[in-house]
């Protein structure tokens, strides 16, 4: 923090306490010329104003709050760049990367630094790590029968996965799969789901406009839509079937996809980027590049095991 902001914050913080001090001194001084307890000469509806001081307990509390405020500013960070003589921090400051943050966090935990975030992480690990370790020893398919474990996985899912897949896990158009329909690009077993969460996925669908041309794209689109029982132009679909040989390398001759490659099944009418003729044409023209981030470093394998359990339970 620059010296300007340090001075700015310090003046406002200390100025407020000093201002309260002088305000209290002024209100305690009797500048009315009337003795305490005597009438002030004001009367309204039979009520006479007396020259009374504020209650002593109120005054004492005011003194205490001012002393407490000043001591707090000295002990904790509150005056700009000044860190306080206790050395307390809410979290590591000036971190520029996730790796650096993790490194500093582990260092603070090992050294017992008075870092609020590090202390909370340490307490959480001591309390919850044994629970996750116990869950990790149980196969996902079996753990999915444990309602408590599933609810733990759900909370982790909402914190880390709902941004893309939605709070109901039904996904959204644009490359975020529905996790409740038992349609899986890379496989829906417990271990496959866990593998996806640990390592992430990157699916690449190349664009075919240069290879097929606009007419060829129209033909392949018609054939691809016909695989799921859609009404299409029969002539276009027939011509597209021959061109589909180039697509069969990933999607299979029958168009049912290949989970080893993450190539989707084109026969079930479930479309990751939309199943309209326009959306499928756009996919074939320009391709798609979907990325599922890896969560190994973010959650760790034990927590991922529980998240995978929740995801598995949604479609089973």
UniProtKB/TrEMBL annotation:
The cofactor named in the record is: heme c
Domain Cytochrome c, chain residue ranges per copy: 148-228, 235-315
The record's subcellular locations are: Cell inner membrane
Q: Which molecular function terms from Gene Ontology are attached?
A: electron transfer activity; heme binding; iron ion binding; oxidoreductase activity
Please give the InterPro entries that the UniProt record associates with this protein. Answer: CcoP_N, CcoP_N_sf, Cyt_c-like_dom, Cyt_c-like_dom_sf, Cyt_C_IC, Cyt_c_oxidase_cbb3_su3, Cytochrome_c_Oxidase_Subunit
The yes or no answer to whether the keyword Zinc is present is no
Quote the cofactor binding remark. Binds 2 heme C groups per subunit.
Specify which residues bind heme c 1 according to the UniProt entry for this protein.
161, 164-165, 292
**Where is the signal peptide, in residue numbers?**
none
Q: What domain of life does the native source organism fall in? A: Bacteria
Q: Where are the transmembrane segments?
A: 7-24, 57-76
Where it mainly occurs, coarsely classed, is membrane
Q: What is a single cellular component term in the Gene Ontology annotation?
A: plasma membrane
Q: Which Gene3D superfamilies match?
A: 6.10.280.130, Cytochrome c-like domain (1.10.760.10)
List keywords of the entry alphabetically. Cell inner membrane, Cell membrane, Electron transport, Heme, Hydrogen ion transport, Ion transport, Iron, Membrane, Metal-binding, Oxidoreductase, Repeat, Respiratory chain, Transmembrane, Transmembrane helix, Transport
Identify the pathway. Answer: Energy metabolism; oxidative phosphorylation
Q: Where does heme c 2 bind?
A: 205, 247, 250-251
GO terms (BP aspect): proton transmembrane transport
Its subunit composition reads:
Component of the cbb3-type cytochrome c oxidase.
* Stated family: Belongs to the CcoP / FixP family.
In UniProt terms, what function does this protein have? C-type cytochrome. Part of the cbb3-type cytochrome c oxidase complex.
State what protein this is by name: Cbb3-type cytochrome c oxidase subunit
**Organism of derivation:** Agaribacter marinus
